[in-house]
Amino acid sequence: QVRLVESGGGLVQAGGSLRLSCAASGSTFDISAFNWYRQAPQKQREWVASISSSFTSTTNYIDSVKGRFSISRDTAKNTVYLQMNSLKPEDTAVYYCHALKRGFGTWGQGTQVTVSS
Fold first, then answer.
1. What's the CA gap between 102 and 29, in Å, rounded?
2. What percent of the chain has pLDDT over 90?
3. Rounded average pLDDT over 31-53
4. What are the beta bridge partners of residue 24?
């Protein structure tokens, strides 16, 4: 099975930056895409960004983070990143890494991102 271990969350001021990491291990050979989701207090989990595992590395973002966030991957390290710039208080949430493997989703443990004003 796939295991996802996240890191990089923390407390930052508005306008600051953070880079989240998601290290994948185990049976990673059939992963077709990676995603980042987030969940703010008392709100539903929200999809944030995705990147395909194909050579094209197709990326997609929710409108509210376009131009500020960037998802990328390092194939050799089996690691996916979410670079977050110009952070806003409304970005405060628990961020989760997600991997798609043959239609089945695997989740990371989540990492807290708090943006103060």
1. 10
2. 91
3. 96
4. 4
